[in-house]
Specification:
Length: 239
């Protein structure tokens, strides 16, 4: 499997992924599903581990104006973008497989990150050390498509039950699991990306691509929330 370097992540955030995160139908649905999971929870401080350019924290603060937003990412370019996008937030360059911040946060979000990390259990243990109340993870499971290792840097797709087991090994207690995406995201959209080598999902989105993204977003509203390759785990401190 192909682990991406920090320089590749920097290049991605500098030139390829910003519009995909803002307008891409899958990115928007991931944020929608995470937001639905956390609405019943009580939290103020929110740390996004692998925050990218900060689009999720920006969206969260619009819905939860009382939150204090924080973020970490392995990419200095991503952290710089996040600081501009989320004024008043605090952001750090951090490799979660090697270290963690000394603080604990009410809510930690780790979205579309663990599938890129060879030592995911090590990262989860560092994330658990920063978790004050709740952790929400989103990642991908099921069959690995051919484009994923080279194009997006996946080192794994989780097997059924694998992520829950690792979260529990990190010392947290799993409270809820949501599987989402059947059939229009998985298998149909994932197979389409495989056939096209994920072309057309990166770079600047003009009016045509924004319209197509909106149409696909609407189609994805018909996906099942009980079955699919996208998995969301809500966990909490066990003590």
């Amino acid at each position: 499997m192909h682990e991406m370097s920090v320089e590749q992540y920097n290049q991605g955030w500098d030139s390829k992924w910003d519009d995909m995160k803002k307008y891409g139908p899958m990115s928007r649905h991931i944020r929608r599903n995470i937001t639905r999971l956390i609405r019943p929870l009580a939290f103020t401080s929110v740390l996004d581990v692998g925050c990218g350019q900060g689009s999720f924290l920006q969206e969260l603060r619009a819905e939860f104006p009382q939150i204090k937003p924080y973020g970490t990412d392995i990419s200095p370019s991503a952290v710089e973008l996040a600081r501009k996008k989320v004024p008043g937030g605090a952001f750090w360059v951090l490799d979660a497989t090697k270290e963690h911040l000394p603080e604990r946060f009410d809510l930690i979000v780790c979205s579309e990150v663990l599938e890129h990390i060879p030592d995911d259990l090590g990262a989860l243990r560092h994330i658990a050390a920063m978790t004050g109340k709740y952790l929400v993870i989103s990642t991908v499971q099921g069959r690995m498509r051919r484009f994923e290792p080279a194009q997006v840097g996946h080192v794994r797709n989780y097997a059924p039950g694998e992520l829950v087991g690792k979260v529990e090994q990190s010392g947290l207690r799993v409270r809820r699991v949501v599987e989402w995406g059947f059939p229009f995201y998985s298998p149909l959209y994932r197979d389409f990306l495989d056939m096209t080598n994920s072309q057309g999902t990166t770079g600047a989105f003009g009016p045509g691509r924004k319209l197509l993204s909106q149409l696909i977003y609407g189609l994805f509203l018909l996906n099942s929330s009980r079955r699919g390759d996208e998995i969301f785990v809500l966990a909490e401190r066990a003590d």
